Automatic annotation (TrEMBL):
Example of a GO MF term: glucan endo-1,3-beta-D-glucosidase activity
Bias type Low complexity, positions: 313-349
Localization (cell): Cell membrane; Secreted, Cell wall
GO BP term, pick one: polysaccharide catabolic process
InterPro entries named in the record: Beta-glucan_modifiers, GH, Glyco_hydro_17
Superkingdom to which the source organism belongs: Eukaryota
Lineage, uppermost ranks: Eukaryota, Fungi, Dikarya, Ascomycota, Pezizomycotina
Region listing for Disordered, in residue ranges: 313-401
SUPFAM superfamilies per the UniProt record, alphabetical: (Trans)glycosidases (SSF51445)
Protein name: Probable glucan endo-1,3-beta-glucosidase eglC
Length: 433
């Protein structure tokens, strides 16, 4: 009892990282400037009913409208005491990736220790493998990248930070759980220090996915990802439920359901000390996309569209178990426990694309992939298309890890939407070349 009590105490002291995903552009394609990021970060920290939303996950290192200048989210984060999960866009081809590296190095040089000490980790790529899969392509997502390229880029990133203040910072990759569960992508897992999972039950339209199923769908996605990750830490890099938009399968987009998702999935994750970047604080500035996942609407305000408090939530939900100790600080870790459900054989359906993967984005990605900056269509928001993850390739036989499960519903629909924003920046960068 004593031991248990002290472990719990320890777990609660070590706070996990909590944050939102931040694109580099507005829905018009206009680049966010430092003051814009400052306003967003400050709003996140002061959201009514919450505390601790102090991390920002980025999709690109490059400031919109420039070729390879460091993104202005960095000085904004330093000023507002926000930590950063950096992102390097990896689906734009080698030239585009080289610019991401240039911006990363320039940031280290320009901001030094003020910057280095607020970095939670680095993600090389975002949903590139999903977009490269049949499901992603069918869902109309954009150009992606294969596992070999991601592995190569991870190595290049490691080399780039070697001997700098960022040396040793945990490097990972973000993708849908279906991509992680695909055995053909295992080399990426091997190259990662941590695995970032995107999960959107809303998009999982090949299975029963009404809002009451969100928790179990999310949990299943997490279990599969943890199985595939084989003991590496799994960070929840994107999840959320739309406040508006069309019904996908049985899942209705509404503020009420977003609140239910928050209570059923997000609150338990928070109490289990898992590193989490919710999608998202705001995606409707100035235009509201469909679906829209923002917890605030067109106007940046600390008053959310639905109640974000967790005290009333049933955090001790059925599937939740003990908190998995997560580390904090630089490179904070998250839970690595694999779900108790790991042996489940339930069918894997659609994994859903990220809200950002839209048709317009596809045009841009293809352009960026070939480095032919023609008409840049600012991809501001994405629509989440659903990708399906086939379980056929889940050849992982990792034994169910013991440990805590994160109470949530399995999201098989994942895909980040933020990717669109990153695109804008990348395209702008390429354009500027
Ligand atoms: C599995 O991953 C490989 C490599 O990324 C990809 O080519 C293949 O299409 C994926 N299979 C499925 C079913 O997604
Ligand atoms: C599953 O992955 C294996 C290799 O890991 C590959 O040989 C096989 O073709 C894949 N199957 C599908 C359906 O992608």
């Amino acid at each position: 009892m004593h031991a248990l009590a002290s472990i719990l105490a320890l777990a609660s002291t070590a706070s996990a990282i909590q944050g939102f995903n931040y694109g580099s552009t507005f829905t018009t394609g206009a680049a966010k400037q430092q003051s814009d990021f400052e306003n967003e970060f400050t709003t996140a920290q002061n959201l009514k009913g919450t505390s601790g939303w102090t991390s920002a996950r980025l999709y690109t290192m490059v400031q919109g409208g420039t070729a390879s200048d460091p993104i202005s989210a960095i000085p904004a984060a330093i000023k507002t005491k926000t930590s950063l999960l950096l992102g390097l866009w990896a689906s734009g081809g080698d030239t585009s990736f080289a610019n991401e590296i240039l911006a990363l190095k320039a940031a280290i040089k320009q901001y030094g220790d003020d910057f280095v000490k607020i970095v939670d980790g680095i993600s090389v790529g975002s949903e590139d493998l999903y977009r490269n899969s049949p499901q992603g392509i069918e869902a109309g997502s954009n150009v992606g990248t294969g596992p070999d390229t991601i592995v190569r880029y991870i190595k290049e990133t490691k080399d780039a930070i070697s001997g700098t203040g960022l040396e040793g910072i945990p490097i990972g990759h973000v993708d849908t759980w279906t991509a992680w569960y695909n055995g053909s992508n295992k080399a990426v897992i091997d190259a990662c220090d941590w695995v970032g999972m995107d999960a959107y039950p809303y998009f999982q339209d090949t299975m029963a996915n009404d809002i009451s199923k969100s928790k179990s769908l999310f949990q299943e996605a997490l279990d599969k990802t943890q199985q595939a990750a084989g003991g590496k830490k799994v960070w929840i890099t994107e999840t959320g439920h739309p406040v508006s938009g069309k019904t996908v399968g049985q899942s209705v987009a509404s503020a009420d359901n977003a609140e239910k998702f928050w209570k059923d999935v997000v609150c338990p994750l928070l109490s289990s000390n898992t590193n989490l970047w919710y999608y998202t604080l705001q995606d409707a500035a100035p235009d509201t996309p469909s679906p829209s996942f923002g917890i605030v609407g067109n106007k940046l305000t600390t008053t959310p569209l639905f109640d974000l408090s967790c005290d009333k939530a049933n955090t001790g939900s059925s599937s939740s178990s003990s908190a998995s100790p997560s580390s904090t600080g630089k490179g904070g870790s998250s839970s690595t426990a694999s779900g108790s459900d790991a042996s489940t054989t339930s069918a894997i359906g659609n994994s859903g694309g990220s809200p950002g993967g839209v048709p317009s984005g596809q045009i841009s990605s293809e352009q960026s992939a070939t480095v032919t900056p023609t008409a840049i269509s600012p991809i501001s928001t994405g629509t989440g298309s659903s990708g399906s993850g086939s379980g056929s390739n889940g050849t992982f036989t990792v034994p169910p890890a013991s440990g805590s499960t994160i109470p949530a519903s399995g999201a098989q629909g994942l895909q980040s939407g933020a990717f669109a924003a990153a695109f804008g920046a990348i395209m702008a960068a390429i354009y500027a070349l």
